[in-house]
């Protein structure tokens, strides 16, 4: 464990030093540091979120899992084999073999815990103060298939097969300790020449993120001083699976799309500005005397709430719809403008397309950050007509760990 | 349409010239040529297969769809906007907008038709001679959710978001003509320094493919001379969704894995050879007098069947299992070595992981190529213990088209 014992982090030269040290290979992100990798790390192109429910009966078993997971994370993020285990004894093949020949591709594994962990017999530390179930929001279409859970593994890398290999390596540590509850996988594409990635509505997504290494970043993301001491250097992660009604969006005129968001799709600038990073002017009025950025425009509704958005696009095509039982909460008649064809009764309509955003927001105060923003948005936001929140979870992201420690070594 | 009117293609300088012309940008693959792009094209990193069922009532409507699809393919593969349509009139946004700023990333769209197309009223051309339903194979675990269909769009690119954008652009052409039946998405990762990609068992996949541009390639892939004249320059595509029981595989010792395949996982060489591209020696015997490559080793069972394998790995995590109705044909008790935990009853076991291969084989004679190989394999193959075929379809891949033509212009 690095020499970090709690208290509020100051964003400064010290803060920069507390980031995971850059390693000799640019495709390796060190797993070690005061904070876990995969948060301040420049966003990788692919991610799988793996959420598990614990099956252990006490804190000591949970500790064994965390020690084992940490050793695995430390090795696989360097492109090395995971340690031998009951399931994979010395000399057996290991799940990462199938990524042989691939670079580590900036693999990171970021681990968080849900409220259930603090109910384990033998757990003596108190839960993070803000680790409470998210409230219900107006308009939620939550599907119990992809929500909740005791632990999250956010696995990110610049190569999809490396993410897949890491997922299998981690899954191999779970038997006897936990069972996978849900998984989600996504991607982002970085424009030629760099810049903010676009979501599946074509809008730049992440424009208002605090800059990495800034005071604002630290003040937004890392734990507040009133949190339990063991949690210092951690964060909270709010996950929402947000289905985007792409057919409805695509049929909406461009200027109306821009009005819905309050930004121009073309360059990401607010309707009152010239460039992507210009501050929106919420007071500016147009020739007709009304505000340029409408009262229910998305950018106005969520203005002033700081969080680190580290989201991924997803495109499951018809996969989840095909695999779906009944009833399908994603199925909406308004997405079926066309008469059913001969084949429609068995696989059918256009509402089956499951495309959207795996919204991931890091922050140290979900109440005043994600929850407050989402309440404002749920209340009134022109964007609501085009999206549905179908998955939801909140986790406390553990502090970082050091070469001689393990994830959660201040906790258990 | 290029000047190509039928007859068997000769692999020669002429054949090379008949390949889609390299364009000025290395990230653009021309859609035009005697053959469709996306077959001889060096395999891109991401693919989505979109299969649709027609809802048109006659060949003339099908022709309109093909004209529209072709215009769309020609434009989006150059990174340009799709043409205006009823669904997306001039000035409306278009589905590719969300890929703004991304390169075309070697996008290709390869279109094939199923047997249903030839039953359309007004269709005068005869069906390809070998376009027959695949026979049932011993061991099949086919799931009706991902099989069959009237049309396939194989969408490939080096960027996942570009594939997704192309899928939406094509889907926008379907209303009134077709409905999507199933989709599948996959990836391959190319090792540092190049070479054959690995599948989810860690084995190199595609070693025995005929080299692009060779006589063997042309003799294997492009239509035989006894096919209907309109079909010249086309091919057949056999799709199989092959679930790989990774937990069982991972628990198998390395030397046994190598024996199952008949090749070494490490370098892909046959057990009788030194290098990946050495020909397997099926007669060679070891010290104990038995053949080095076992009688039921995979490489022996499928030896001598030539086809162009252009497969993609897939990793759906627990996605399809979570979304699954009942009964789940993928669920097998032998994959549940661990006692169910507290959460197991609702999401549970390790058999839920849906990982494997989107097997895509191009060839001009499915009977003597895929079907013969699969019959040999179904009969006896040590690999069968580790895989399940869960999806199946066959399509006739249309000949290529030219700047003034459209996909299927020799057909309808």
TrEMBL record, chains A, B:
Q: Residues annotated as region Disordered?
A: 325-348
A Pfam family of this chain:
Dyp_perox_N
Identify the cofactor(s): heme b
Residues in Dyp-type peroxidase N-terminal domain copies: 36-187
Q: Which GO terms describe its molecular function?
A: peroxidase activity
> What SUPFAM superfamilies does the entry give?
Dimeric alpha+beta barrel
Q: Which residues form a coiled coil?
A: none
**Keyword vocabulary terms for this entry:** Heme, Iron, Metal-binding, Oxidoreductase, Peroxidase, Signal
Q: Which domain of life is it from?
A: Bacteria
Q: Where is the Dyp-type peroxidase C-terminal domain?
A: 196-400
Protein family according to the UniProt entry: Belongs to the DyP-type peroxidase family.
Q: Which PANTHER family does this entry report, sorted A to Z?
A: DEFERROCHELATASE, DEFERROCHELATASE/PEROXIDASE
Indicate what this protein is called per its UniProt record.
Answer: Dyp-type peroxidase
